[in-house]
Amino acid sequence: MKTKWWHNYPWRNIQTNMRQIDMKDIDAQQYVSELKAFGASLAMINVGGIIASYETELEDQTQSDYLSGDSMGTIIDACHAAGLRVIARMDFSKVREPIFHKHPDWAYRSAEGKIINYNGDVHACINGGYQQEYAYKIMREVLEKFPIDGVFFNMGGFTDTDYSYNYYGFCHCDNCKKKFRERFGLEIPTEKNMKDERYRKYLLFKEQVVAEEKSRMADFVHSINPNVAVDLYDIGRVESNTEYKRTLPYYQYSSSSNTRVLRGISSTLIPSNCSVDFIGFFYRHVAVSAAQQKLRLYQELANLGGLDYYLIGRLDNHQDKTGFPAIKEVFSFHKQHEDIYTKTLRSCATTLLLKSKIWETLAEERGWVRALTENHINFDEALEDEFLSHPLEKYATIIVPGIEKLASASVAKLTEFAASGGDVVVVGNSAYYDEQYAIVNNPFSGLLGIEAMEYRSNDMISSMLKRTEDELKRFPSMKETEVLMLGDQYLYARYGKEVEKLLSLIPPHLYGPPERCYYTQETTLPGLTINPIGKGRGIFIPWQPGTLFYREGYDNTFFFLSDVLLSILGEKPLAKDLTPMVEVTYSKEIGDAFRLVQLVNTSGHFGTSYFKALEVQDVVLTVPCETKLSSVTSLKSGKEVSFTQHQGEVTITLPVLGEFDCLVLR
């Protein structure tokens, strides 16, 4: 089978999300020249959908009124002549208002029958005739007119929120109502309520429809041209972005985590997490900090992804170019070392963190990402489908961070993994719903040794967990504190006799006035349990330490998470004494021709700002490696780095770390 062009391609993508007016005076040669100056190898260009940036022959695709510059065909040809691949950006989420009036059945409809009309763009329903039929006519025209190399579909799925973040509710168009009724024999609900079976079935309905449409469109594109890379089928593309007045805290590991999830366990997707140039929808022309842009791109490299940068408009007429030097620097570094980054690389991680969704991240997941990263533990992330479809022999530990919907097959696979000798950590209310969104009261009874899951309390403020002196050896970070902050949620359960219970719950108590701030009750309810199962262990944490650490960030919670990882699970950090502000990853070329230790310095993240990272001196790293090495080289300095090798481990001393480095072990 012939290898597709995107496999092992030097992925440096720039998405120029062009406005209509950008086609008015676009010069193809200048456009290409700007891309080449950045070191780009791909260009993503708005081609069709809401607005056709070319002369379309389809009457129900609105053609731009600004096609006086070089044509789309000329631009694509110029890109190809310069060695650049071209990905067409398509958007079928909306139609212009005149098209809606011709085809009112194409539109999203609220429960009251209203449309979403945002500045003359009307939201189209995924189950309507536009996305189900007409989009395929547009896609065929684009594929037959232009020699594109890939296609990206913007804003797919059920779009029930506008650009001002106004929420309009579930779509109740006739197409949705008919399809939902045929599948489930129910009417579409009007409110988000997990206690309502209709709402749970509606969530399942949306998942099914989106998955079906993704697969159908990919098959359609490949039937016309199998050498076109399709979004979320051949290319995994998400983004790291910001927004004005977004709820804090900022998530500094967005780019790392997104790239890891796209990469998965052994995914064939090209991981392409784009760094969004602008502050948010409301400020599309103002760039975020250059240091933040650079951090995101280095995190993509460290986690074995391609480089991807996205801005509004063209490069030549962009009004805020403050991020350009940073983008060029990272692109240039990647281009200089294509011989390394275009090889097939695999993570050396033996720890796996399950992830709920691509575009949404639970606070609990983010907290565990922080804890793993800041303890310098090499780890992978994977969605459930990836987890179910791949063997798990490389892993010693799997963490399930409060993912409430989990298939029964996943529960069985996790139980089997533990029985075969692995450690499985289950947090909070994981797997409360199965793959059909049916409620499962005690899903991990066998894995965790839980006889009955009694109830969940969401009113645990002021409650704590207390350690004993005997437990100090299991929780060495708690040497100077006897208690842990618990947060809001706790799961009350009854455990089997073989289950080891650690820490004890102090229930909610008075916290004011100061004269009465003391507790009078301690329980034997645990803060962590360990159940021996076969050759392995099922470990249960009946509260949400990841959520607490992500939102609050106190040492008190970090102590607990670190002790779970390092003491109870026995994880070995890649850098024992290194500041938590440096992210470290470890990977190898698939044939073990070389290995990579990559370091991303996040010390420039300060409060809500991003500045240039501070240098870190005398970085000592220890990585497992049975292969005898002859050299360790820094790609940043070009110099060899001192190392020693003993009993299956390599200890490396890097004299100084700037913003980033990649060490090549041969």
Automatic annotation (TrEMBL):
One of its GO terms (molecular function) is beta-galactosidase activity. One of its GO terms (biological process) is carbohydrate metabolic process. Coiled coil: none annotated. Residues 358-550 form the Beta-galactosidase trimerisation domain. InterPro entries: Beta_galactosidase_Trimer (IPR013738), Class_I_gatase-like (IPR029062), GH (IPR017853), GHL6 (IPR028212). SUPFAM superfamilies: (Trans)glycosidases. This is Beta-galactosidase trimerisation domain-containing protein.
